[in-house]
Amino acid sequence: MGCLAERVGFEPTVPFGITGFQDQLLKPLGHLSVERHAASNFALLSYQIQIPLSRLFFVTLRMGKREAIKGFRPTVSGTGTVHFLIFYPVFCMNILYKPYKRKYNVYRLNILRRRYPMNSIKKYIAECIGTFVLVLFACGAAVVCQCSLDNYAGYLLTALAFGLVIVAMAYSIGNISGCHINPAVSIAMLVSGKMNVKDFCGYVVAQFVGAILGAGVLKLFAPDSGLGTNGLFNGNILLSLLIEVILTFVFVIAILGVTSKPEYGSVAGLVIGLSLTLVHIFGIYFTGTSVNPARSFGPALFVGGEALANVWVFIVAPLVGGVLAALCYKFLASEKK
């Protein structure tokens, strides 16, 4: 290696920032530096070796976390001979890299498990599926049954459809994610201390994605329908906000109560589904009953017009109702005198 370095005019420098290696082994390599990349999951540690060929040209070898596991990828800056690039750096890096291979591999796996736990991903997927089913089947029932004040059968069937979807999802994905499928429920769990901020954000994103997908599929089946969108009561924003806050409060406080004790687990899905049916029977007359920001946003996005212009009412009001329900239940269930 020494002869090869002399032939290309190599000027060795003393490495720094590395422990566990002898300076005599690193001197022929040139300059070895350590960089930390906090923004990347894989390139947490990277090594850069610069081997001068002359005053203007040098060979650069970079090895990051991904390369540390799969092998290293030499690159050239300037010009250099192929045999030097392949043989000299790779031979030396094999010597330096092997003692630390297991350590780097374990560190990478620990980082991935800490930042992206598989259980959280499964929960987000479950929430997306649940909200997709809610919008497609429940809002779809409103379209198919022609829910209106003049059609009492359609009115009741729509309310029942929302409740039945919750029952079905509660007993299918409830053991995975808790079957929130509603940002108002998720924010209530956050306020109650049953969920952290990271999972809350993941749940809400998944719920909105599921609602958009469900509304998109429903749009394909019924392109000329209103997709079960919500509307203001008599064009009054304040009354609509108040109605939705009350409806969401009743629905969410029922959820918090029935999920507060493990012994209620066998009937929780049924109770929650019937509670949603109840608030729909009462609220469809006024606003179409949202109590779910994601359920309102998905259809409104495809219908547009007034439905999209007023959708903020059906996002804000359920979130406020969910927070109030969580605070109220927290106070009522507290054991302090």
Describe the structure.
This protein has 337 residues and is of the alpha+beta class. It has helices at 2-7, 23-26, 65-70, 82-97, 101-115, 118-144, 152-170, 174-177, 183-191, 197-221, 237-258, 265-283, 293-303, 305-309, 313-333, and strands at residues 31-36, 45-52, 58-63, 73-77. It has a 4-stranded antiparallel β-sheet. Strand 1 (31-36) and strand 2 form a beta hairpin. The longest helix has 27 residues, at 118-144. Residues 1-47, 54-58 and 63-114 have low confidence and may be disordered.
What top-tier CATH class of the largest domain fits best?
A: Mainly Alpha
Q: Whole-number radius of gyration?
A: 30 Å
| Physical arrangement of strands within the biggest beta sheet | 1-2-3-4
Identify the quaternary structure here. single chain
Q: What is the overall pLDDT average?
A: 75
Helix proportion: 55-70%
Instruction: Kindly report the CATH topology of the largest domain.
Output: Glycerol uptake facilitator protein
Structural domains: how many: 2
Distance between the termini: 80 Å
| Strand residue content | 5-15%
CATH superfamily of the largest domain: Glycerol uptake facilitator protein
CATH architectural name of the largest domain: Up-down Bundle
Summarize the main sheet.
4 strands, antiparallel
* Individual helix count: 15
Shape: globular
Structural classification: alpha+beta
- Write the element-wise H/E pattern from the N-terminal end onward: HHEEEHEHHHHHHHHHHHH
Q: Catalogue the unreliable spans.
A: 1-47, 54-58, 63-114
Task: Report the strand count.
Answer: 4
